[in-house]
Amino acid sequence: MITSPGSTPPGSTPLGLDPDELVACVSCGLCLPHCPTYRVTGLEIASPRGRITAMRTVESGLAPIDEAFTAAMHACVQCRGCEAACPSGVAFGHLIEGTRARLAANEPTDPNRGRRSVSRVQRLVRRALLGRALTWSWLLRLSGWGLVIGRVLHVIPRRLRSTAPNLRPFDVRVRSTIERGGRPDVWLFTGCVMDAWMGATHNAAAQAIRATGTTVGRAERNVCCGALALHAGEQDLARNHARRVVAAFPGAAPIVVDAAGCGAALKEYGDLLDDASARAFSARVYDVHEWLASERSLPLRTTGTTVVVHDACHLRHVQRCHTAVRSVLGGAYDLVEPADEGMCCGAGGAYAATQPELAGAIGERKAAALRAVGADRPGVVVASANPGCTIQLRALGFEVRHPVELLADALIPQPAEHESR
Amino acid sequence: MYSRDAGLSEGRAGAVCFPNDAADVAFAITACRRHGVPFVARGSGTGLAGGATPLDDALVIVTTRMNRVVGVDRHQRRAWVEPGVLNLDLTRSVTQFGLHYAPDPSSQQACSIGGNVGTNAGGPHCLASGTTTAHVLAVEAVTPTGDTVTLGGEVPDTPGYDLRGAFVGSEGTLGITTKVLVRLQPNPPVVRTLLLDFESIDAAAATVSGIIAVGILPAALEMMDAEITRAVEDFVGAGYPRDAEAVLLVELDGLEGGVDEQVRSVERIGHEHGARSVRVARDETERQLLWKGRKSAFGAIARIAPDYYLHDAVVPRTKLVDVLRDVYDIATRFDLTMMNVFHAGDGNLHPLIVFDRRIAGTWERVYDAGTAILETCLAAGGVLSGEHGIGVEKRDLMSQYFSPADLAAQGRLVDAFDPDGLANPHKVLPAGSRCGEAGANRPVPQGAWI
Ligand SMILES: Cc1cc2nc3c(=O)[nH]c(=O)nc-3n(C[C@H](O)[C@H](O)[C@H](O)COP(=O)(O)OP(=O)(O)OC[C@H]3O[C@@H](n4cnc5c(N)ncnc54)[C@H](O)[C@@H]3O)c2cc1C
Ligand code: SF4
Ligand code: SF4
C-alpha cells in the first residue's frame, strides 16, 4: 500500500510543519556522516534522516509527541551540517526550528511532563532572560556564557559544574572603542554577549575594516541578534529581538558581523520576520571575513605562525562563506585544514550546557581531528570566528583566537589609515 | 526508524541491536536461532533495493558501532576493517600512505563497508578496477547458524571453494560479516577529469562507444541527461552546462605522458561526435566539485519531485543508444518524468522515474513503466542489477532473468548457510526458490509495501 504523508493542511498538524518541506527528504542518507550526533552515537534517531522520519511520524498522527521524540529533537545541535550536505535541499534548520517552537509552546501544558520538562516558573524566568537579559551586558560580564544560559534554559546539569572552571571566560577588561551612531561607511554589529566579552575582537575587526579605507561605527544601543531564543524555540522573542536590531541600523550601509552565529541569524531575518524591510536588511549583512575578502587586499606581513582553521557551523553550513576566512588570513599565516569537513565542535549556543554528554563526545571528536593536524603543538593557533566554539575549544585545551584578531596582528600600519578615519 | 533503507519498501523492525564486536553479533544470531526470530544486517541504510528492510518483525542488527579500522598493511596494500567503517572514511584513513579503497559508490560518504560487501557495490571508478568483490580478499562472518567463519584469506587464491565470492553480494542472506580484509590501491600519479557537453543523448552515447573502441579504458565514464544535470548544478554550482542534453564525465589516470595523450584522444573523439565543449578540470578543487555533482545526483532529484523509482540494469554497451531511446519512449508513453544518470562505461543504466506518491494513481503507472523498462533492457541482453542488489524490490523480477534450475541452485546455496531461513528472509530470491517453500507463489509478505 502507498501511504500518503502530509495530506492535512499546514499548521493544523501536531508540529505545524510545512508538508512540502518534510516530503523533500528522500531518505538517501547522504547527510548521516555530516551529523555530529549520529557520528558519536551511531543511532538513526540521532541522525537528520531519523529526526525527519520522527517528525513525519508525529505529523501524520502515527506517534504522539512523547519524551523520546522531545529528547531526540533537543539532542540536535542545530549545526545544520546536514543542510549543507543534503543534495535535495531539505530545509532542516527551518524544520527543527519549527519543531522546537512547537515543543516550547507545548511545555507548560504538556500532561506527560517528563523529567526534562521545565515548570511554568522556570519557563517564565527563561523567557524573561532570553527576551531581555541578553542585552544586559553587565550580567554577562559577571559570568561565563555556558553557565548563565544553561541555568536559564533548563537548569545546569550537575556534571557541568565540575567542568565550569575550564570555561575560561573571555578577557572582559577590553572595551570596544568604536564610536556609536553617526553615518559610518559600514556598521559593525557588536551584539550583546559579544559586546561584553569580545571588545578586543571588535576593535580588531574595526582596525581591519579601517585599513581598507572605510569608516566604521556601531549601533547607538547594544542589541541581541535573538539566535539563542530562536534555537530554544522562542520564536516570538526572537522576532522582537530582530525588530530591535533592524531599527538599530538605519540607512543603507553594509552591516558587518564578527560572530558567526549572530551573522547567520541576521541574514535569516528576512525569513523570520517575513517582510520586505527585513529582507532588505538581511541583504545588507556580511560576515566580517566575507566583507574583507571582497575589499581590496590588506597590507599584511608574513608571520610564520601556523594557524589551524576551525569553521564555525554557522559560518560554514549556514552562511557558507568559510572560504573567506582563508582568503583573508592566507597572506599572513600558514593555514592548516582539519580533515573532518567542518564537523561541529558541539558548542552550539547553549548546547554544551543542556546536553553535556553529547557535547562532550562531539568535542572529543573535534579535539582528535584538531590534534591530528598538530593544533595542540606549542605556537600553533586555532582560528575560530564564533564565541561558542571558542569557549568549547579552549576548554579542550587549544590556543584559540578570532581570525580578525590574527589579521589585526599582521596588519602593516599604513599612513593612509589615519587620514581616512 | 529502522523500517526502511533509501529504497521504497517499508517493513517493521521487531527489535534493534547495536553490537560492538563480533562476539555481540554471534550472541545476537545465536539468540535469534534459539527463538526462531529472523534477523537483518544493516549498515548505513543507504541501500536502494530494500535489502535492509526488516520483514516478519525481524531483529535489525546495526553495525554502526563496529567502526574501527583494525589494521592497515601499507606494504601489502590491504587492511582489515570492521563492517561499520564508512567507505570514504576508509579511504581517508589511508590517504597518508598514498593509498585508497577503489570501489566508490556515489553514496561513498555515507555507506558502510559491510553494506558494500552485502550488495557487491560498484561505483564510477569500478569501470577499470572492478566492483567490491574484486577488492575484498576475505570476510570474517557469523553464519546464520551462529558459527564464526573466515571466507577467503590473505593469499590471492585460497584452496577449496570460493565462498568469499558467494558471500560478497549475498545481501545479508548468508550471514553477517564482522570483519573485512580489503585490498587498497596506490593513488595514480596523474588524474585528469573531463566534462563533455552534448546536444543529444545519442551523440554522448556514441562518444562512449568511440572512446572504448580506440582502446582507452578510462578510470570512470559517467553520463547524465539534461534534467539531472540541471538538478545537480542547482546543488553544487560546479559549472555544469544547464542547457546540455547530455554530459559525459570522463576520468583518465596513469603516468603523465600517457594521460595527456589520452586526454587529447578523448577531446578529439568528443568533437567528432558533436560535443559542444570539452572542459578539463583545472585543479583538484574543480575536479572534486564535478564529482560531488555526479555523486549527488540521486539526492538532488528531490528538487524535481519527492519520490524516485530507480532501476539498475546493465545492458551491452553496443546497445546503449537503442536501449536509451526505448527507455525514454516508455516514459513518454506512461506520461512520466524520467531521468538518467549512469555508469556509461560499463552500460550500467540508472533510469530514475521521479514522481509524487501523494498523487493518486501515479505509483501504479510508475511501477508498470519500471517493469517495461526492465523488459527492454533484458530483451537487449542485459541483466537485472549492476550494483544495487535485488533486495525485496527487484526480487520478483529474478525469475525473468534466471531459469527455475538457476534459482534452485542459488536456493540450495542459501539453504546450506541458513537451514532455518532466518537470515534476511524474503530477500533476493523469489518465493518458491528454496526447499520447504514448496513452490508456493507467495507474494511480497504482508505488512511490506513497495
Ligand atoms: C545517493 C545514493 C547513491 C548510490 N550510489 C550507488 C553506487 O554508485 N553504486 C552502488 O553500488 N550503490 C549505490 N547506492 C546504493 C547503496 O549505497 C549501496 O548499496 C551500499 O553498498 C549500501 O551500504 P549500506 O551501508 O547503506 O548498507 P545497507 O543499506 O544498510 O544494507 C545493504 C545490504 O547489505 C546487507 N548488509 C549490511 N551490513 C552487512 C554486514 N555487516 N554483513 C552482511 N550483510 C550486510 C543488508 O542486509 C542489506 O541487504 C547508492 C545509494 C544512494 C542513496
Ligand atoms: S535530509 Fe537530505 S541528505 Fe539527509 S536523508 Fe533526507 S534527502 Fe538525504
Ligand atoms: S542540525 Fe546538526 S545535529 Fe541536527 S540533525 Fe543536522 S547535522 Fe545533526
Describe it:
The complex is a heterodimer of chains A (421) and B (450). Chain A has helices spanning 19-23, 36-41, 48-59, 67-74, 81-85, 92-106, 120-131, 137-142, 145-153, 158-163, 193-197, 199-210, 227-231, 235-248, 260-267, 269-273, 276-283, 288-294, 313-318, 323-329, 351-354, 356-372, 387-395, 403-410, 415-420, and strands spanning 186-189, 216-217, 255-257, 285-287, 306-309, 334-336, 381-383, 400-401. With 421 residues, chain A is mainly alpha-helical. Chain A folds into 3 domains: 10-109, Alpha-helical ferredoxin (Fumarate Reductase Iron-sulfur Protein, Chain B, domain 2, Orthogonal Bundle); 137-293, no CATH class; 306-410. In chain A, strands 2-1-3-4 form a 4-stranded parallel beta sheet. A 4-stranded parallel beta sheet of chain A has the order 6-5-7-8. In chain A, strand 7 (381-383), helix 23 (387-395) and strand 8 (400-401) form a beta-alpha-beta unit. In chain A, helix 18 (288-294) crosses helix 20. Chain A starts with 18 loop residues before the first helix and ends with a helix. Chain B has 450 residues and is of the alpha+beta class. In chain B, helix 6 crosses helix 8 (256-272), helix 6 (201-213) runs antiparallel to helix 11 and helix 7 packs across helix 9. Chains A and B meet through helix 3 of A and helix 2, helix 7 and helix 10 of B. The structure holds flavin-adenine dinucleotide and iron/sulfur cluster (2 copies). One iron/sulfur cluster binds at residues 25-31, 48-49, 52, 82, 86, 88, 90 of chain A. Flavin-adenine dinucleotide sits between chains B (5-6, 40-48, 51-52, 63, 83, 105-107, 111-112, 114-116, 118-119, 121-123, 171-172, 176-177, 298-299, 387-389, 424) and A (28-30).
